Amino acid sequence: MAKIILLEKPSISGTAQCPLSVYALAGWQLTRAALWPFDKLSPATIRRCQDFISDHLSTSQNTKDNFIIYCQRVLLYSRIATVSPSLTLDAPVLWLNPSHKNGYSATGEIARLIEACRISMPAYLEGVTALSEGYCQYLLQKSTGTLSRLYTRLLRLKQYGLLHLLGQIILQNSITK
Asked: Which of 120, 142, 149, 166 is 20 to 30 Å from 135 at the Cα level?
């Protein structure tokens, strides 16, 4: 029987948490790699983007779950942006601004639609969930074993674009240490 995967209920067990600043930096690295991989941004703009991400992640007590949901929503938007040539992507500092209704704030409805699709097709966009949860697990336990399990899972799911994105994120993560 297939496993139902819901966007709003991350499945990483345990209570380990990273500091909010670690999640905000990691969220920015994923967001930039997924949506603006070639844009040259000033350090001040990057700091503002990370502050906005911190705002999104601190909406409830469980920052880890919020981080996973944040990653899923960014990855879903990235998929939509890839297949919809008419979609214009705002600048990162605008897209991440909580008061901007056409940016990250608008991805909640997309997430609800995907969740509804997963009722009849449980593995629908499973790679998005796998990368989001695996990236969070990597932040909690930075080991080659964690990356290897995530790599194997994405490979098994034939999520080659997400594998490429994972490589970009991990490379960026190792550069900014």
From this structure: 120
